Amino acid sequence: MGNQDIYVGLDIGTTSIKVIVAEYVQGQMNIIGVGSQRSEGLSRGVIVDIDKATVAIKAAIAQAEEKASVKIERVIAGIPANMLKIEPVSGMIAVGDASKEITDQDVKSVAAAALVRNLPPERESLSLSPTEFIVDGFDDIKDPRGMIGVRLEMRGILFTVPKTVLHNTKKAIEKAGLTVTCVVASPLATAQVALSDGEQDFGTVLIDVGGGQTTAAVIHDHKLKFTDVDQEGGEFVTKDISVVLNTGFKDAEKLKRDYGNADSLATTEDETFPVAVVGKTEPVMISEKYLSEIIEARLAQIFKRLHQALQQANALDLPGGIVITGGTTAIPGIVELAQDIFGRAVKRYIPKEMGLRHPAFTQALGLINYAAQLTDIDILVSSVLPTPSLSRPETKQPTVETPRRAAAKPASKQPAPETAEPKAEPKEKKQSWLKGFFGNFFE
Questions:
Q1: Where is the composition biased (Basic and acidic residues) (predicted)?
Q2: For the chain, is the Cβ count within 10 Å smaller at the N or the C terminus?
Q3: What b/e string do you get for 139-169 counting C-beta neighbours within 10 Å, with b at 16 or more?
């Protein structure tokens, strides 16, 4: 990029709201401001009180504005994967009776044709991502503009979410005096920074352990193929500590942060610390091992439920293994616990940027990276959605030219549709994991 562009990522989480302001100068991202505030009006990743959420958003934005010394008016927002549906779509239009150059309007028209479907009244389209265009039978085209053809086809992936989730998020942001320039399914944004190019290509399970819920996502061929949301997260660990030790919630959170460990085998009974117990004047001494057993029990339950869902989807044998991130993964020993539960190699992603070296900032950072990598085609296609949300930053950004391909390999007569969600193989067939893996992710 030749000019300077400002991007603002807004991560509305259950326990905290994080804002990251970044500038892109010639393709280099520089963080210039960060804001973080305690969340209000959210439950398990979803806004349940718009007014309270608005106040918290304003506070986080004000903090980021002060640090970045810029006025924030436009933000990129993440949408939780609760009840997210992924489905392949396709559309076709006649460009003209005679061959003519394909224009922006033709791209919009074919994208609109792909959206001709009846959605349930309670659901709304979140985003539409093109996977390829086909011009007169030649496929694997990323940008058909300027090419000559009679028939234009588009294949893509449509994400839909409950209307309530999308509406409440947008409404709270708008009431905070901001404009939403882009809404992104949270796992897609997180994958932009937490996974390498190879991990996104060959296939990886990405687990985001947040405060109110835990989201597992399967990323393969740079596409989101499957999601599963467990309605428990780090906040439930804190509640367990509070109840078992009979201490206040704030004290329990502090104990989790200062002394917590998710691997009870790594702690001992000898190391103790004082705990303020309700109804007692003197603190009670508790061992690190006892605290660790409380934390381990809840996290093990979460991981076991996700393990079952991922196993049914035949996703645990993907080459990329498992990557975990999110604020709760800051607890020591959580990688070892995850490896024990999943039986696979597990690594934790922590942002490397100065001032963001905590896994809680992964999603907000991913939102910025996702928006910065949007192409003109992505924006054109998304503009046909009922509530379009993709746009460029306010500063002028040069167009990134996509190499034109005059022709590609001819498309097969019966192309395999994009897999929306992996399906488990019948148990009685006793097929090898490799056959099941290829059957689910390469069809």
A1: 420-431
A2: C
A3: bebebbbebebeebbbbbbbbbbbebbbebb
